[in-house]
Amino acid sequence: MEFYEKAIRYELSQKFYFEAAHTLDRKIDSEGSRRIHGHTYHAEVFVRGVPDDKSGMVIDLGKLRSEIDLIRDLLDHRFLDDVPGLGVATLESLCAFIYRNLSRALPNISKVRVERPASGDRCDLTLD
């Protein structure tokens, strides 16, 4: 039996970061959240699959990086409250936004992670 036929799947990921500002209307820590403030966000996109017979790759990492660059441009040094299609600028909505904007070009996305390391916050959007 061929190595790749044993129900083995690979998961590749690519990390990126972006700097952005937003406001957030919330009940806890509301004073600082309602004012414009910014974060350094770290994101990671995971792609799962079986390597192609010819290339030996699940995905060409150059393609993955170029698609991520398009999304990063939509978020980096932006006021997230004004980003079309994002909605309320939460970690959850950032995960969903990244997934929605990459899923056509990268249909084998298995997970999107967004975190703010400085505050220890992280969100994973996981697809089965």
Could you walk me through the main structural features you see in this protein, from its secondary elements to its overall organization?
This protein has 128 residues and is an alpha+beta fold. The chain has a single domain (8-126), classed as 2-Layer Sandwich (Tetrahydropterin Synthase, Chain A). Helices cover 25% and strands 33% of the residues. It has helices spanning 30-34, 61-75, 91-102; strands spanning 10-22, 37-49, 78-79, 109-116, 121-126. The protein has a five-stranded mixed beta sheet. The radius of gyration is 17 Å and the shape is elongated.
Provide tags for this entry.
elongated; Tetrahydropterin Synthase, Chain A; 128 residues; alpha+beta
**CATH architecture annotation name:** 2-Layer Sandwich
What structural category do the secondary elements indicate? alpha+beta
Structural domain count? 1
Distance between the termini: 26 Å
| Low-pLDDT stretches | none
Quaternary status of these chains?
A: single chain
The fraction of residues assigned to DSSP E strands is 25-35%
Q: How would you write the strand order of the largest sheet?
A: 3-1-2-4-5
Largest sheet: 5 strands, mixed
Mean pLDDT: 90
Q: Could you tell me the CATH topology label.
A: Tetrahydropterin Synthase, Chain A
How much helix is in the residues?
Answer: 25-40%
User: CATH homologous superfamily?
Assistant: 6-pyruvoyl tetrahydropterin synthase/QueD
Topology:
Blueprint lengths: L9 E13 L7 H5 L2 E13 L11 H15 L2 E2 L11 H12 L6 E8 L4 E6 L2
Parallel strand pairs: 1-3
Antiparallel strand pairs: 1-2, 2-4, 4-5
